[in-house]
Every structure is written in structure tokens, then in C-alpha cells.
Amino acid sequence: MNFVRMSAVACTAVLALAGTDAAAQARLIAAAGRYPQPVRGKVMDELADGLRLTSFEPHRTLLDEPAGGFGTQELMFDIGGNGFSVSNRIGVVGQPFQPGVVNRYLELAGKNEWTLTSNVAAHPFHIHVNPFQVVAVLGPDGRDLTDPGAVDPADGDTQFAGMRGLWKDTLFVKQGTDAGPDGIKTRFYRAIVRTRYQRYIGKFVLHCHILDHEDQGMMQEIEIVLPDGRDGLAKGGHGRH
Ligand SMILES: [Cu+2]
Questions:
Q1: How far is the CA of 119 from the centre of ligand 1 (A)?
Q2: What angle do CA 140, 143, 145 make, to 5 degrees?
Q3: How far does the centroid of ligand 1 lie from the alpha carbon of residue 115, in Å?
Q4: Is 67-235 in CATH node 3.40.50.300?
Q5: Distance from the CA of 182 to the CA of which of 1, 120, 196, 213 falls in 20 to 30 A?
Q6: Tell me: the pLDDT tens digits for 219-234?
């Protein structure tokens, strides 16, 4: 389950910081005691058994699969006439978060390639439940800033260098350039990520991880649903075409 995978990532990170001495091991075991059952017992046993974590498995890469096998999702963060908003269309101003409105229905067992952009200001994109794999972060000039050693010529930024293939739940999305007369940028930084929707059915959110922005509406609600058997999705229990 995703939880187990994410726990493995977290444990690995903690070990990298804390070393593998007995005190760190004891702290990890104690922390695992807060996990839900039945994960708790398995994790505690494996941590006690030489920090083996052998039942954890890495995410299978999505980089090798052809783009045609993915659904597509667009996202544009913005601060402007509609306030703090998120749009499903790059270049089209979106709306602030509205409670009770599902902004995206996604299919369980589906795979999507997302393109993340920002019209005004830079925003750390964060999504819950299913992590994503970084495919590319393209600058406004089209160069891939995830290449090893890549430097953003606009500001010397190297934060994306070597990031291709990494699994993450948060990614910085920089502001586009060259605003048109309507205030919409004509060139964007495009963060391209891939994800699959496994096991979890239901609602969760994506949002800007600057909480001040999130609180003002820079958030969307997502619902993972089952296919309805007629090439559509079973939204809210009522099949729609
Ligand atoms: Cu933001």
C-alpha cells in the first residue's frame, strides 16, 4: 500500500539523518508504534530485525512508458482578478477553492501526466495520497532543468538538477514570463510529472504549500472514482457520460 511505501521513504530519510545506532533504532520503533494497524506490527518487527524493511517495495518507474498511455491534467496557479486560484487549463484563469466542489475526477487504476504551471508568483505544488514521479521541469526556453548539472539561466537556480525520476509529493513551480495584454503569461515553466492512482478511492486535495496562499483559495478537491463501465466515471454514485 502507498502508506507502506511512503513510510519506507520516511524511515530511509530518518536513518540518513540519524545513523543506525541503537538509539535511532529505538526511536524509529517507537515512532512506528503510532502507525495504524495492520501496518504497525509489520513495521515495528522489521525495524527491530536489523532495520531490514524487506517487505517494502520501491515505486515502479513510469518514465519508460509511452506518453500515449497517460491521461493528461493541466494546472495553473494564479494570483489575480479571481484572487488566489487554481485552474485546470494552462492560460485560463481558474477559481479559488469552493467547499463541496470537486475540481477533478480521476479514475482508480488510471495513470496521468500532469503539467504544472504558474501565472503569477512561484508556488510549491503539493498533492495528497499518491506521490508523483518527476519527468521534466522545462524552463520558458524549453530547456530541461532536471538534467544533471542544469542551471536556470534566468536566476542561477539549480534546485531541479538531477531530479528526473524522483518520486515526490511537493514540487516548486516557478512563475511564467512575458505577460500578454490580458495578464496571462505567454511562456511558462512547465513541471511535468506522472502518477498512478492506486487503492485509494475518495476525496483529497492538492494545494499550494504556502499556507497563506492555500488559506486564500489556492487549493483544489480531487476525487478518485471507479469507471462506470461505459467509458465514463462513476461520479458520486451516478454514472455520467
Ligand atoms: Cu502559492
A1: 11
A2: 100
A3: 16
A4: no
A5: 213
A6: 999 999 998 878 788 8
